[in-house]
Structure formats: C-alpha cells, structure tokens
Write a structure and sequence with these properties.
- The protein is α/β, with parallel strands linked by helices.
- It is 52% helix and 9% strand.
- It contains 33 helices and 11 strands.
- The strands form 3 sheets. It has a 5-stranded mixed β-sheet with strand order 1-2-7-3-6, with helices on both faces.
- Strand 4 and strand 5 (80-87) form a beta hairpin.
- The longest helix has 20 residues, at 183-202.
- The protein is globular.
C-alpha cells in the first residue's frame, strides 16, 4: 500500500491496521493521508493528538479557518506547563480528521494529554524529533549534497509526489532503526498502542488507519502485535492540579521555523500554496509576491529582474534534477537575481533556526513572503474560557473597549479601577493596551497614567491571547493574581525580580499578593549578596511604604521590616566591596541611593541607624581599595547625612583621569546638589581639574565623565553650562553649549586619530615646521 504499512491480519479476522507515518505540517504527507483514507474508508481514524480532547471532535471540526491550535494548560504546586497542538490546512492530522469524518469513520486522538510529564519539556506537540536522529539526517544530507533536512525533505518528498509513500516508509524506518527512543517516547507509544489494539478489536472487518509522526510508526507496528484490547482510560490531572484545553486562533508567523517555532517546517505560506496549487504554481505566485513586497518598500525591481528571477529559478530546478521548483530553488533564484551586494552571513534557508539580525533587507523580505501573514479564525460557536467574556464585559463597563488614548487619574475610584484592569491585561500579556507614562517604581509618586488602546484585533492576537490567559482564572482579577503567584514562585530568592512582581501586584490591586511577595523578599534578605538586587527591592518597597495610599500599601508594618533589613544589608555589603579602577556600576549606585532615601524619609519612623550609616559612609569614602564609584557614592551619602567634610578637597583627591569620572558618578548619584550649590565651589574645581587634563588624559576620562553627568536632568545640565559661562565672563546660550553637531565621543575619537597620525608622520619626518610650512620638497637638500 502506497505510503503506509498494513499489518497482516490474524487468520481468524479480516481487518487490518494501516499505519501512516508523517512529518507534521507536510503537504506531501497530507496528500498521502487523504488518499489512504479515501481509498480504505476505515471504521476508525486514529490520530496523534491529545486524548483528553478526543471527546470534543465536533468542536474541532466546526468549520474553523486554519491555522488553529489546541491550547493546553496545566498548573500545580510544582509545575506550570502550557503547550499547543497546531493545525494548518496542510497538516496531515487536520486532513486525517476531515477526511475521516467525510468517510464516516470514528475519530480518536490517541496520544497522552499535553499536561502529562512525557511532554514536560515540550511546548509544541508537533515539534519534530530530529535531534534524536541527527546523525542519520546529517549523513543523508551529505549523500544528497544538500544543506539541511528541510531541503532534503523537499528534494525527497514534496516536489515529486510519485512514489513518495514508499520513500517515506524507507525514510522513517531508517531514522527509527538507528535512533533510541527516550522514556517519554516509550510512554507515549505504549499508550497509543493501547488505542490501536482496542480500535482493531472493535472495527470488525473494517480497516483502521493510524496517523502519527513517522518516528513513532515502526515502534507502533511492533507494539500492537500483543496486549489487551480494552479501550484505554484517558488520564486526568492530579486532584491538586488544574488543567484543560481550548481552541485558539493561530498564525503562520507562529508556525514558521524562521520565527522560532519548534516544528521543523519553515515558510508556511509556501507550503500552503504548494498544497493548494502544486510546486510550479506556488513558485510562480511567490516570485510575484516577493517582487511586490520589495517594490512596496522602495526597492527598484524591474521587469528584467523579474524575468531573471524566473529564469534562474528554472535553471536551478533543472540543474538539481527537480521536476518542479523546490523552495530552495525559488529562494536561491531570487537571491541571484535581486541581490547584488556581498552577503556577510549565510542565507537563512541553508541552516535551521530563526532569521539572524542584520539579514539583508531583500533576503528578509523573501523569508517574510514565504512565511506569510495568515491568521486563523475560529467558528463563532467555538467555546471559550470564562475569562474571554469577563474581560470583554469588564472593559466595556469601564469604557476601555475603544481605540485611542486614555488618561487616568489614579486618585479617583474610577480612574484607579480602570488602571487596575489595564494593568491586569498587561500582566497577562494581552496585546492592545500600551502604557506611555505613569508610576514606574514604588518610589515614583506619579498619580496619572496615559495609555493608548488598540482593541481592533485585526490579526486575531488579542483574542488568542485572552483564550490562552484563561488558563489562569475565570476573571481578570483571578488570572492576574495567578500569574503573579507563578512569577513569584519562579523568582525564588531573586529580590530584583520579586520587587518587579511586588510593584505589579500593587498596580493590579492584588493587595493580598503584595503581602506574600513582601514576605518572600524578607525571607531572602539575610542570605542576599547582590547589592543591586537588594537596592531594587528596597527602592520598590520604600516607595510603596511611603506614597501608596492609592495602592493600599502605605505604612505597611511588613514593608517597614523589609526596608529596615534591606538598608542594613546594603550598607554591610557595600563596606566589604574591594576593587581597583573599574567602570561605575549604575545598578549598585541606585542601591546606595535607595538606602539614602530610606534613611532620609523613613528614619524617623523605622529602626534605621543614621549614625551607623554615616560611619559606613566615612569608612568607605576613605578606603583606597574600594571601587571609585562606591567611594564617590559613600562621600555623597555622608554629605547628605550631615558630614562636614570638604567637598572641594575630596574632588581634588579623586582627580586621576582613570578614576575621576567613576568617582563623580558615585557622588552625583547620591548628592548631585553639591555641584549645583554655589557655596561649595565644586563646579569651579571641576572646571579647573578638567581644564588641566592633557589631551590624552581627557580622552581617557571622557567616557566616564559623560556617564557621571548623565545623572543630571536636562534642566540641571543647562544650569551647569550657564555656571561655566559665568565663570569665564562669557555671554551666550547655555542650551546651545550642550548641543554639538557630532556625537562627543565621535569627536574625541577623531581627535585621538589625528594625534596618532601626527605622531606617525613626525616619526618619519613628514610633519611641517613653522619655518618651513610647506615641508621639504622632493629633491631639495
């Protein structure tokens, strides 16, 4: 039987099982499945798919526009898992179900549910298994002189349908014969074999067709020869777990291997057209599509270029022995005709994986054209999780169901309620709500938010994302809270990530979660060694403790404890840091700044020892082995806390070109007012010290100096520029002084290059002198 293997029937029975091994999302395999089912008209069509969705075949066959997918989710105390079983119009499994229904067959999914531990490491059921037989496929690629398995597959099966069935059987037999199945595959195959035996026993004298990945076919043929004939039980999630499945719209972009999909088949638009019209028509149509895309982006593509692309494609097709253009023939012909530049990276279809950054624009357009932009559409009667209706009704009730900008006042009950709904969408990853401004950290007492809404959902992504988010709960509130719990568990003891979760919990109005997250932060402080992460947590918790009556976290006793312990830990860790000259660490400096804010704004209420902090600041500022940015930060902290040390003397002491900018970065991060205060004379000293640097030393110091002055907002930088003009008695625009026609670092690099050229010319006597400005002419003595 073409493309399939029929197991010999026992003498007492007339029926047989026909196994069809396929590559997922292959038009050639879809045609084979179609032909086998139409010829045999079986009693059962058994398909590799989630058995727990088997009772919902009518839902799957309602009349959707593919691509669509079965989205499955699972969550317990130890594991969270989500996966997809996608179908496009040319997927063999999709064709098997529709042809089986047309033939009057009983349809069954026979694989383990997606939540089963056998799928724990897989987010896509139909991911190819080629990692398990890479050695075999690499040998075949060498034998046929092709670059990868995609090109090999097209060469063997997609372009020449005659005899493809026999070649498929030999191909999959070779692969499985030289590869060992893992425990996960063994468990799945044993379970699928139970369904096959039961269907065989129940079918009487009618045939059974089994459609699975080709890798499983040889094992299943062996397994069904012995064993019981009862229908297997569909596994259910453990009692302490939640799980389920829903249909979701899918897209060609999500199917494409060039955008990171786990399945091996790239270029879904190409294969869709190949399925519908054959390889010759697909190649001709896509040449025109590529040219149209390039022209739409302003690239000149003439009629002659189009003719050249067609001619080169046809030539490559004949040269490679193909009866019609394969995908690689088409792409190689297009590149040869349309790309005249040197390419600095491999063409993406010659290797596997995502399209690399920096790809040639024409190549990127070719990949995009063959990828396509089709998005599936579910039938209007398709059941959806409760979250979809809840989100739709909530957004309508709050007036958030229209496109356009939205300004929310967080001080009003309705403004706060609308803000929380939008933040819940954001946390759930639902597209269509983009926040342009608002509170960015807990320390940011901003009481207004600006959003831009786009609820049109032209690509179907919003509806799909809502369905998938339905795995977390029936309402926006419940689902967002579950996502925050998941993020908290994943963060573990990473306080920077926990701080982000805590702030999102406040924005979403999940006050109960805020307490639990704060408890996790508190539990992790004692063993924390990352100053930056501690600072991020302190900054967030302090802001929520100080300001957020809006979010319900102001003056929380638990938050107060976190602030006390974080501040103490940061100071203790800072005092132990040692290291020579190194670039300033902005994240570490923010941690010291957060400690400063805690001492200034919470010291009167919480148990924060200001004198002890001042002692740490003095010791670190005077420690020569401490990094320069921390020494500058410690000096600034001391000044803020009341130390009367002379800032001018401190600045002079830090003026080495290799450390000056980094020390200043620390000072400015903690006490930039020292520069702006005319009573301290710091600005004059800085002007003097920078002016005294040699050109070479200035170029060494410049990058760090620029980083240091980034701590001043534009208005304060303008005040500094005005102070410099005043010192010199010059009149002019301070704002204009801050603008340069070229990037300062580019100018510095140009000056350094000129200096190197001058030295090289001087070394060989080619530099002019003041007495001889034109130099010595050739031949003069």
């Amino acid at each position: 039987m073409e493309g399939a293997a029929r197991r010999p029937a026992p003498a007492a029975r007339l029926m047989a099982v026909t196994f069809v091994g396929v590559r997922h999302h292959s038009p050639a395999c879809a045609r084979l499945v179609r032909d086998v089912i139409r010829r045999l008209r079986p009693a059962y069509v058994l398909v590799e798919g989630p058995a727990d969705f088997g009772g919902r075949m009518d839902e799957l066959l309602l009349g959707h526009e593919p691509p669509v997918a079965v989205f499955s989710y699972y969550r317990d105390a130890e594991r969270v898992h989500a996966s997809w079983s996608p179908f496009c119009g040319y997927s063999p499994e999709w064709v098997a179900l529709h042809e089986g229904r047309a033939a009057g067959a009983d349809l069954r999914f026979i694989d383990l549910p997606a939540w089963h531990p056998a799928f724990a490491g897989r987010s896509n059921r139909y991911a190819d298994a080629e990692r398990r037989y890479a050695e075999v496929t690499e040998r075949l690629c060498r034998e046929f002189a092709v670059d990868n398995t995609d090109i090999l597959w097209d060469h063997l099966f997609e372009i020449d349908p005659d005899g493809a069935g026999e070649r498929l059987g030999a191909y999959f037999g070779l692969l499985r014969g030289e590869a060992e199945a893992g425990e996960d595959d063994t468990a799945r195959e044993s379970y699928m074999a139970e369904w096959i035996r039961a269907a065989e026993a129940d079918a009487g004298d009618r045939p059974v067709v089994v459609v699975t990945g080709g890798f499983h076919k040889p094992a299943l043929e062996a397994l069904v020869t012995s064993g019981g004939t009862d229908w297997p039980r569909v596994p259910e999630p453990p009692e302490d777990a939640t799980g389920g499945s829903f249909l979701v719209p899918y897209s060609f972009r999500r199917l494409d291997a060039f955008t990171g999909y786990q399945s091996g088949m790239p270029s879904p638009e190409y294969y869709q057209r190949l399925w519908e019209s054959g390889p010759a028509a697909a190649a001709g149509a896509l040449v025109e599509t590529v040219v149209a895309r390039l022209r739409a982006r302003g690239q000149v593509v003439s009629t002659a270029d189009l003719i050249a692309a067609r001619t080169l494609t046809e030539g490559l097709t004949r040269l490679r022995g193909h009866p019609a253009p394969a995908r690689a023939d088409l792409l190689d012909g297009l590149v040869s005709a349309l790309v005249n530049d040197d390419l600095d990276q491999r063409l993406p279809w010659t290797s596997r994986g995502t399209l690399a950054p920096g790809a040639h624009p024409a190549v990127a357009e070719m990949v995009a054209a063959l990828s396509g932009d089709r998005t599936g559409r579910l039938h209007r009667d398709t059941p959806a999780p409760p979250l979809v209706d809840n989100a739709t009704s909530e957004l309508a009730r709050l007036g958030l169901d229209r496109d356009g900008p939205v300004v929310l006042a967080l001080t009003t009950p309705r403004g706060l309620e609308r803000s929380r709904a939008l933040h819940r969408l954001r946390v759930l990853g639902i597209p269509g709500a983009n926040r342009e401004s608002g509170p960015a950290t807990g320390a940011d007492p901003v009481l207004e938010e600006r959003w831009v809404l786009d609820v049109s959902d032209r690509g179907g992504l919003r509806h799909s994302a809502l369905i998938e988010a339905g795995a977390y709960g029936p309402t926006l509130d419940d689902a967002a809270a579950a996502v925050l719990d998941e993020r908290m568990n994943v963060a573990g003891t990473d306080m920077e990530r926990l701080a982000g979760v805590l702030f999102d919990a406040a924005l979403c109005g999940c006050a109960g979660r805020s307490e639990r997250i704060a408890e996790s932060i508190a539990a992790a402080i004692a063993g924390a060694s990352d100053i930056a992460a501690l600072g991020a947590a302190l900054d967030t918790v302090l802001g929520l403790w100080r300001h957020d009556r809006v979010f319900g976290t102001a003056r929380s006793p638990l938050f107060g404890t976190v602030i006390e312990e974080c501040a103490d830990r940061v100071l203790w860790l800072v005092e132990g840091v040692r290291g020579g000259p190194a670039p300033a660490d902005p994240r570490r400096l923010r941690a010291v700044a957060a400690t400063r804010d805690a001492l200034l704004h919470a010291g009167g209420t919480l148990r924060l020892d200001r004198d002890a902090a001042l002692g740490v600041a003095r010791r670190v500022a005077a420690e020569p082995d401490a990094p320069p940015d921390l020494r500058g930060a410690a000096f600034g902290l001391g000044r803020v806390l009341g130390d009367a040390s002379d800032p001018v003397r401190a600045v002079r002491g830090a003026a080495g070109p290799k450390t000056f900018g980094d020390w200043l970065a620390g000072l400015f991060a903690l006490a930039r007012q020292e520069v702006l205060d005319p009573d301290t004379s710091v600005l004059g000293v800085l002007d003097e010290l920078v002016g005294a640097l040699s050109e070479e030393d200035f170029l060494v110091a410049l990058p760090a100096l620029r980083q240091a002055f980034e701590y001043f907002p534009p208005r304060e930088r303008e005040a500094i520029a005005q102070g410099l003009l005043d010192r010199r008695g010059l009149r002019g625009s301070a704002r204009a002084l801050l603008r340069t026609p070229d990037a300062p670092l580019l100018t510095a690099e140009a000056l350094a290059l000129e200096a190197r050229v001058d030295r090289a010319l001087s070394a060989v006597g080619l530099m002019g002198t003041s007495d001889s400005p034109q130099g010595t002419q050739e031949g003069e003595s």
